UniProtKB/TrEMBL annotation:
It comes from the Bacteria. The lineage of its organism: Bacteria, Bacillati, Bacillota, Bacilli, Bacillales. Residues 61-70 have a biased composition (Basic and acidic residues). This is Transposase. Residues 46-70 are annotated as: Disordered.
Length: 87
């Protein structure tokens, strides 16, 4: 894992094509903390699930994703998987 090898969260995001001016300079650190917490609770499966950290008895989301939102989500997943393969 790149973070464990000493890279800063912002450096990892920049190297994987994220624009910190667009997402915010503190977002990488917040994301990494949230992902670590999720991993500690649920393991790798928790990072793959769209409902991670949500109650299974909760109301399902009624919001349908637009084609653009689905594409962004798919692109983020590809980047995540590519980063996982190279680490």
């Amino acid at each position: 894992m790149e973070y464990r090898s000493g890279k800063l969260p912002s450096q990892i995001f920049i190297e994987n094509g994220f624009n910190l001016e667009l997402i915010g300079k503190n977002q990488p650190k917040r994301c990494l903390q949230r992902w670590r917490d999720t991993f500690e609770k649920f393991g790798e499966v928790g990072l793959q699930s769209d409902r991670r950290g949500k109650s299974s008895t909760g109301r399902p989301s009624s919001k349908e994703l637009s084609a653009e939102e689905k594409l962004k989500k798919a692109e983020a997943r590809v980047k995540f998987l590519e980063a996982k393969m190279t680490s």
